[in-house]
Amino acid sequence: MATKFIFITGGVVSSLGKGIAAASIGLLLKSRGLKVENQKFDPYLNIDPGTMDPFQHGEVFVTIDGGETDLDLGHYERFTDVTLHKFNNTTSGKVYKSLLDRERAGDFQGETVQVIPHVTDEIKSRILQTATETGADVVITEIGGTVGDIESLPFIEAIRQIKFSVGRENCAFIHLGLLPYLKECGEIKTKPMQHSVKELLGFGIQPDIIMCRSEKQLTKSIREKLGLFCNVSQDSIIENLTAKSIYEVPLMLEREGIGKKLISLLNLPDAEPALTEWKAMVHKFYHPETEITIALVGKYIDLHDSYLSVAEALTAGGIFHNTRVKIDWIDSENIQTPEKAAELLEKADGIIIPGGFGDRGTTGMILSARYAREHKIPYFGICLGMQISVIEFARNVLGMDDANSTEFSKNTEHPVIDLMPDQKDVDLGGTLRLGACTCLLSEGSLSEKAYKVHEVQERHRHRYEFNNLFREQFESSDMIFAGRNPDRNLIEIVELKSHPWFVGVQFHPEFASRPNRPHPLFRDFIGAALQNK
């Protein structure tokens, strides 16, 4: 069977949830026994989001092979449980850099390099590469941005050309747009969607399916109007209502018939979707037996998407324990004294400090780690959160008053966290310790009990590490090294012997968590928080 290609474009406004829609479609097709692969094409000129401000772009999702990618790849992995790679995310920056490198090397033999055919051919080759690399039955490609944006035009033209490369019968185009509801007149307005589809038609693409983001159900007359003016049958108009949980979206879209429609459009083998486990997970999410509060102490709190995978991993841990996890988002800059830490954290059943870069807000994080340690509150430190726990312990238990990371203080006499030698004098972008690395777990540790194995692979994204010059002082204390990398003898996990549940990890376990299969450390962290409650 030839690989089938589904392209998802957005219209009217941005941030409508194309990534959730793409992930949901991936789940629905995979549940029918098809091999699916999701990918994202972003029109911005950055090579990847690795150097972008989290307030502007949200979290950076890291693939197992060290790709710094768009956060939508996290949705793809969580919904489809398919492990993605660097090639699953392409930006305009990657496209142009590849072409310019080839031009400088003389590959074009003096030919004028142009948007058409060279840029569009590069985009098409990357779309087709995913099919070749993975052998997928269906490749689902989300085009970032909104139709009509200048920067996305080469991508729109490329997917128009794809249908001639692979055959019209092997392509389906889905256009997702907003149907605004005007409370003043009590009406859903279709005109913005009509104009968006008209714009897409102007670029040579007739959508096969119109997906309508709306707060209200679509009436028969709305469907008739959209079908008439957008050149589609009414069964090709899919309602995509705002859901209480993103994990309900696949079930809503299945009820709307999008799975059957795509099977028919692409002439794919049909089967009854195996969604029993997913439905059970959603049911547990909506019917918790209890509730706990987890204090998330971070520096990018103003944009919750900066910690998207962490939040979803906490939710998954809660679902496992039939518990609703209420996240108390705490800006670490608001904690400057022990008294303020006590005021903001006293109601927390567990405390988590996620990753981040730079020294802003680290005082509040250190005070939070100390509060968790001294008050025996379950603590989970991720990447920076692990380093913070080491600094706090060095200062307040081992007597190293100025202990710090050289990221925050170059002149500290006790650099318990330091830059790795191979990280000195390198470019900022794409040079962190990235991707999956091996970690050996100490027998009897909390981490080993959680994983139930002695060796794991986890994804990294950082530049600084525990400084092994201070290893002896820590090993004779209450802090234990529960995980290490055997290849470079790097400390990966720290724990406290006398604490009920205190774990700091140098890696990012949130990227491997799934809503119906939580990461072991998040599962046990929520379990410890429940006991603490």
Describe the protein's topology.
Elements lengths: L3 E8 L6 H13 L5 E7 L11 H4 L3 E2 L5 E2 L2 H9 L8 E3 H13 L10 H20 L3 E6 L9 H14 L4 E8 L2 E2 L4 E2 L2 H12 L6 E6 L5 H11 L6 E5 L7 H8 L1 H8 L10 H11 L3 E9 L9 H13 L2 E9 L6 H8 L4 E4 L8 H13 L4 E4 L1 H13 L7 E2 L9 E5 L13 E9 L4 H6 L3 E8 L1 E3 L4 H5 L3 E7 L4 E7 L5 E4 L14 H13 L1
Helix pairs in contact: 1-3, 1-9, 4-5, 5-6, 12-18, 13-14, 14-15
Question: What are the defining features of this structure?
Answer:
18 helices; 7-stranded parallel β-sheet; 533 residues; single chain; Rossmann fold; 9-stranded mixed β-sheet; 2 domains; alpha/beta; 23% strand
Account of the 3D structure:
36% of the residues lie in helices and 23% in strands. The protein is α/β, with parallel strands linked by helices and 533 residues long. The chain folds into two domains: 4-13 and 21-35 and 94-277, Rossmann fold; 288-532, Class I glutamine amidotransferase (GATase) domain (Rossmann fold, 3-Layer(aba) Sandwich), CATH 3.40.50.880. Strands 13-12-14-15-23-22-21-18-19 form a nine-stranded mixed sheet, with helices on both faces. Helix 1 (18-30) runs parallel beside helix 3 (72-80), helix 5 (115-134) packs across helix 6 and helix 13 (338-345) crosses helix 14 (362-374). The radius of gyration is 25 Å and the shape is globular. The termini are far apart. The model has no long low-confidence stretch (mean pLDDT 94).
